């Protein structure tokens, strides 16, 4: 057990350093190596003032990163399809986010790094006071980071 904990700690230390994307002013959020991201990764960012409230009300929370301005939830790639995220939320494809030194603040107990996108979408709408709406397929999304 101690050997596993030490390898997890040492392996996690190497992986938690965000990789700066070249020329874009963004960083890619690094998942802990023990987690399986078989569905690809995107991220949904919300202002930090909503972070604790969202985390306490979600039925399941995956990896969450934070910096001074935003909390970022890891969701499966393509979680923006047909969802019209509120303008206060930022959707980042490939989990490349406009953040300064984001750090991992929550890691799930299982091997899946994802927060389910539909409950997250509904909770983000609720805390921001926006009525949930679904965008037509292929339509422009509010708050997307491209």
Strand order of the largest sheet: 8-4-5-3-6-9
For the secondary structure, the number of strands is 9
SS field, number of helical segments? 3
Largest sheet: 6 strands, mixed
What Rg, in angstroms, do the CA atoms define? 15 Å
Which term fits the overall shape? Answer: globular
Provide the structure class: alpha+beta
Measured as a percent range, the helix fraction is 10-25%
Q: Low-confidence runs (pLDDT<50, min 5 residues)?
A: 1-17
Q: Termini distance?
A: 42 Å
Sheet-strand content, in percent, reads: 15-25%
Q: How are helices and strands ordered from N to C?
A: HEEEHEEEEEHE
Q: What is the averaged pLDDT score? A: 82
Structural commentary:
By secondary structure, the protein is α+β, with helices and mostly antiparallel strands. 23% of the residues lie in helices and 22% in strands. The strands form two sheets. It has a six-stranded mixed beta sheet with strand order 8-4-5-3-6-9, with no helix packed on it. The protein has a three-stranded antiparallel beta sheet with strand order 1-2-7, with no helix packed on it. A hairpin with a 6-residue loop joins strand 1 and strand 2. The chain is globular.
Key features of this structure:
146 residues, alpha+beta, 6-stranded mixed sheet, 3-stranded antiparallel sheet, disordered N terminus
SSE order and pairing:
Layout: H1 2-15, E1 19-20, E2 27-28, E3 41-47, H2 51-57, E4 64-66, E5 70-76, E6 90-92, E7 96-97, E8 103-106, H3 117-128, E9 144-145
Parallel strand pairs: 6-9
Antiparallel strand pairs: 1-2, 2-7, 3-5, 3-6, 4-5, 4-8
């Amino acid at each position: 057990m101690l050997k596993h904990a030490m390898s997890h700690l040492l392996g996690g230390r190497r992986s938690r350093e965000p990789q700066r994307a070249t020329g874009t002013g963004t960083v890619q959020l690094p998942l802990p190596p023990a987690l399986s991201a078989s569905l690809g990764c995107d991220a949904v960012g919300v202002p930090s003032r909503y972070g604790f409230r969202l985390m306490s009300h979600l039925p399941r929370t995956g990896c969450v990163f934070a910096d001074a301005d935003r909390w970022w939830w890891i969701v499966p790639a393509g979680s923006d399809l047909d969802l019209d995220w509120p303008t206060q939320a930022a959707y980042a494809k490939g989990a490349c986010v406009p953040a300064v030194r984001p750090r991992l603040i929550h890691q799930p107990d299982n091997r899946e790094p994802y927060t389910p996108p539909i409950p997250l979408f509904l909770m983000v709408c609720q805390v921001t006071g926006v009525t949930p709406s679904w965008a037509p397929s292929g339509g422009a999304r509010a708050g997307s980071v491209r």
